[in-house]
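REVIEWER CHECKLIST
Item 1: Sequence provided? yes
Item 2: Single chain? yes
Item 3: Sequence as submitted:
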Amino acid sequence: MLGAIAPISLMAWLSWHTAMASEKEHLQALADNVLDRTNLAIFEAAEALKSLTPLHIESCSRDHIALMPLMIVNTPALQEIGYFNNRMRKCTSWGPVEQAIPRDVPDFSMWDGVGITTMMLPLISGAIRC
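Item 4: Structure as written out by the authors:
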């Protein structure tokens, strides 16, 4: 009886082990893809924001705000741009902000000093951060 069960058990274990190894490789490839896409999105967003600096345009001026929507259209990683000064939001791609809105503490910072804040919600919507 043991002679019949042992080969079947061994084959079941080998099948399970092979399937798990294959699934692990697949999940690692997915994780690498997500990481690569996230890094690219952060790089594109940071480069877009840095491209405003050498233009020497007055912050939140009509010209400055007019460039922001163009940056959003040309940078798929961006959905919205806001300009901060002294940790207060002064304007966005929608226009000047009537009241200064404090900047959240970044969730993490990149090696080049770019701060990343996830889930930055608009105050006007009354949205609640989860």
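Item 5: Key structural point noted by reviewer: Strands lie at 82-85, 88-92, 95-102, 108-109, 115-116.
Item 6: Recommendation: ____
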